[in-house]
From TrEMBL:
Annotated keywords: Cytoplasm, Hydrolase, Protein phosphatase
Pfam families in UniProt: LMWPc (PF01451)
Single Gene Ontology MF annotation: non-membrane spanning protein tyrosine phosphatase activity
Catalysed reaction, written as an equation: O-phospho-L-tyrosyl-[protein] + H2O = L-tyrosyl-[protein] + phosphate
Annotated signal sequence range: none
Family designation: Belongs to the low molecular weight phosphotyrosine protein phosphatase family.
SMART domains for this protein: LMWPc (SM00226)
Cellular component per GO, a single term: cytoplasm
Residue span(s) of domain Phosphotyrosine protein phosphatase I: 3-150
Location in or out of the cell: Cytoplasm
Protein name: Phosphotyrosine protein phosphatase I superfamily
Coiled coil: none
Species in which this protein is naturally found: Dimargaris cristalligena
Active site: C9, R15, D124
Phylogenetic placement of the source organism: Eukaryota, Fungi, Fungi incertae sedis, Zoopagomycota, Kickxellomycotina
């Protein structure tokens, strides 16, 4: 049985593909890749079909994390297909809560809820400098470990 995890931000080109890549890298490094179905999406369709922002990809690659993703928008089916939908900020959470179908299985949370340092918001780095992408990388790395702890898999 696999656990489906969908990472969500606004446009699916900065934060959520980074979170997807970092989480996939984290579970792979622990030999747990076969236990997860991992993807990312955006609440808006601004960048559908595009590759992630180069700064996001460069930051991941710098840390040895591969990124392979094309942006897509969240669908109603995602709420039935994934066990967890983890978003980056309060605005994403509100959008997802509004669109979540009744009787869907997905648990919707902000990914930052799992940050052991308590930094709940993973801010949009799009209009910032590379330093903002580095900050996001550190956050999603901590949150990945924290989420695995939440699932009871943290010390694997």
């Amino acid at each position: 049985m696999t656990t489906g995890v969908l990472f969500v931000c606004l446009g699916n080109i900065c934060r959520s593909p980074m979170a997807e890549a970092v989480f996939a890298h984290t579970v792979d490094s622990k030999g747990m890749s076969d236990q997860f179905n991992i993807d990312s999406a955006g609440t808006a369709a601004y960048h559908t079909g595009e590759v992630p922002d180069q700064r996001s990809t460069d930051t991941c690659v710098k840390h040895g994390v591969k990124v392979k993703h094309l942006a897509r928008q969240v669908t109603k089916a995602d709420f039935h297909d994934f066990d967890y939908i983890l978003c980056m900020d309060q605005s994403n959470l509100q959008d997802l809560t509004k669109m979540q179908p009744k009787n869907s299985k997905a648990q919707v949370h902000m990914f930052g809820e799992f940050d052991p340092q308590g930094e709940k918001i993973i801010a949009d780095p799009y209009y910032g400098k590379v330093k903002a992408f580095e900050h996001n990388f550190a956050q999603v790395s901590r949150c990945s470990e924290g989420f695995l702890q939440h699932l009871g898999l943290g010390n694997a």
